[in-house]
Amino acid sequence: MINTSNFFKANDDSKHLFFADAIAKEHRGTCIKFQDMYAEKALSVYVKDVQAHDANFAFLSTELSKLVPTLFEPKWNTTWQRDIPTDVGGGFVDYATYFSVEWSGMMNEFANTMGNAANYIPRVNAGLDQHSVRVFTQEIAYDYRFVDVEKMNTIKMKKDLDRIYKDIINAGWAKFCEQIGYLGIKGGYGLFNSPNVLVTTIDNSTATGKGFAGMTDEEILSFFNGMIEFYLDGTDMNLSLLPDTIRVPSFVGRELSNRASALYDKSLRDYLVKHNLAVDESSGQATLTIESRPVLNTLGVGGHGRIVAYKKDEDFVRMEIPYPMQHYITLPNPERFGYTSAFVGQISEIMLPYNQSAEEMGVVSYWDFIQ
């Protein structure tokens, strides 16, 4: 705790200098985090789960004031669209179903080379497996009160009431989709915590902190190349299955971007993206993106953080949106003295067709820190 009791003994013109200098002395040589200093207040500008109708626009007024026409709304963001391919359309459903194929009778060192003494020729076979995932429906509405409309008409805003409420619904829908896509709901799972994905532990016992902190550039580069080698060896050098998307905890992303060396002119993250085993083995055709996702910070064995690698392609990772969030119906509401507009949307759980068991290699892989 910073002691401020002696900060303001000087005159008012210089008191801010004493305050700044005291902070600098107490924290010199350390990293001051924004959230550590301000706790939950640091998140006050973002979207939270609050009631949108509490105030009912009761105090709208412009008397004896200059109106700023800009409407200052909560800021929000989602990243699931960058990580998960989706397919839209199909109408209202309860489940999304897909089939996978198993081959048998393929050639090996004994079979299919020639017929046996009975002139029997081996056959190949294929089996179809049906898989289904749940589809979730989000229903939400807002009341368009006549009184509120009249209040809004008394001032000149750049945004009407209808658009304000629709923006709230769109933000809620995006957050809903991200929760389903990343972690799942109601006992389900998402891209980052599927029980059908093989987990490999990362030996970061030489680290001095979380993730790769304190490890050498060579050790970090060796890990990422080892990840690529895992795919090359397990797929018989099938370059089409090499991961092009790597999502890391935020403390790993910070570490990679903080690293600088005479060997590369930018950050270690930039170097890893351009210089890795996938690029070398594919003659420069492979691409790789490394981005941070804070939700990964506490996932994995022991909750020490998880790295997720996969090929971002709808054949391997996808979600279905049978009915995108949209206006469904508007009806009079005598109790609210206005109209109620209802919106409906549907989205499926994550589909990982090439990850059927945590005991087998799949296109999606998890890499968990041990400390």
Task: Please summarize what this structure is.
The protein is an alpha/beta fold and 371 residues long. It has helices at 15-27, 34-38, 80-83, 146-153, 161-182, 217-234, 250-258, 268-274, 277-281; strands spanning 86-88, 95-104, 125-145, 199-202, 245-248, 289-292, 306-310, 319-321, 323-333, 338-348, 365-369.
How would you portray this structure in words?
With 371 residues, this protein is α/β, with parallel strands linked by helices. The chain is 25% helix and 22% strand. It contains 9 helices and 11 strands. It has helices at 15-27, 34-38, 80-83, 146-153, 161-182, 217-234, 250-258, 268-274, 277-281, and strands spanning 86-88, 95-104, 125-145, 199-202, 245-248, 289-292, 306-310, 319-321, 323-333, 338-348, 365-369. The strands form 3 sheets. Strands 4-11-7-5-6 form a 5-stranded mixed β-sheet, covered by helices on one side. A 4-stranded antiparallel β-sheet has the order 2-3-10-9. The longest helix has 22 residues, at 161-182. It is globular. It starts with 14 loop residues before the first helix and ends with a strand.
